[in-house]
Amino acid sequence: MWIFRYFLPAVFAVALGIFVAQNIDQKSTIQFLFWSIHDVPLILIIAVTLVAGFFIRYYIIFLKWLEKKRLEQAAQKIIRSRKPDEEMRIKKDYSKDIEEVAEDRMKRRMQEEGSQEKEEQK
Fold first, then answer.
1. Which domain, by its residues, includes 26?
2. Which of these, 35, 83, 121, 105, lies nearest to 97 by C-alpha position?
3. Which helix (H) or strand (E) is 40 found in, with range?
4. Which among 16, 23, 61, 54 has a CA at the least distance from the CA of 40?
5. Average of pLDDT values for 33-39?
């Protein structure tokens, strides 16, 4: 894909440079609807259109970059909002385990105390 990204634009730029160099003294007329400008240098027309094309292209790239940043920020916000839920679930599981262990110990103690009382009664 490097051919489309670097090589073809370079070939186009060289061809455009050769064209401009051969037609440096050429004058042209710009007409749009009822508006017209006479004797405009061809190199000026080409330069203005190239600059306009670059601005439009990089403005589109800038908009895509902004959208990508916005999506990344939204994704990070979602991840941050889910993280406490996971932490709370882990804490709940941990506290549940602690409660179960405490209940088991209490049952054992009660059983031990009950068996000790039975032995004392005998």
1. 2-121
2. 105
3. strand 35-41
4. 23
5. 89
pLDDT on residue 110:
83
- Sign of the dihedral defined by the CA atoms of residues 54, 11, 13, 26, in that order: negative
Spatial CA neighbour of 49 closest among 23, 6, 20, 14: 20
Q: Where are the alpha helices (DSSP H) in the chain?
A: 2, 8-22, 42-121
- Name residues whose C-beta falls within 8 Å of residue 85's C-beta, 6 or more positions apart in sequence: none
Apex 29 CA angle, 25 and 33, nearest 5:
165
Amino acid at 116: Q
Count of domains observed in the chain: 1
* Token pair listed for 98: 């602690």
Whether 63 and 53 have beta carbons less than 8 Å apart is answered as no
- Mind listing the pLDDT tens digit for each residue in 5-25? 778 888 888 888 888 888 878
